[in-house]
Design goal:
Largest sheet: none
Bound molecules: zinc ion
Number of strands: 0
Strand content: under 5%
Shape: elongated
Order of helices and strands: HHHH
Helix content: over 70%
């Protein structure tokens, strides 16, 4: 019985650590290189990284501003 409780506590703890890590990762700002990889279809990124970029852009005004800048820079270079 005790063994089951220990295993359950371990699983719950692991799930909690993963959830917290996901939240913290989502707060990390996106770099220009990451954003460019993301724009290119994210083939060089794994699913976790790609969904992190999507999630972060949804919540971070600062990075949304950078994205505008990076896209504008692209247009300037192509013009
Ligand atoms: Zn950000």
């Amino acid at each position: 019985m005790t063994f089951i409780l220990v295993v359950l506590a371990g699983v719950a703890f692991y799930a909690m650590v993963r959830a917290i890590k996901k939240i913290l990762d989502g707060r990390k700002h996106i770099t220009e290189a990451e954003f460019r990889a993301y724009l290119r279809g994210g083939r060089t990124m794994n699913d976790d990284d790609r969904s992190r970029v999507t999630r972060h852009l949804g919540i971070c005004l600062e990075c949304q501003g950078h994205v505008d800048e990076w896209i504008r820079k692209d247009n300037d270079e192509n013009a």
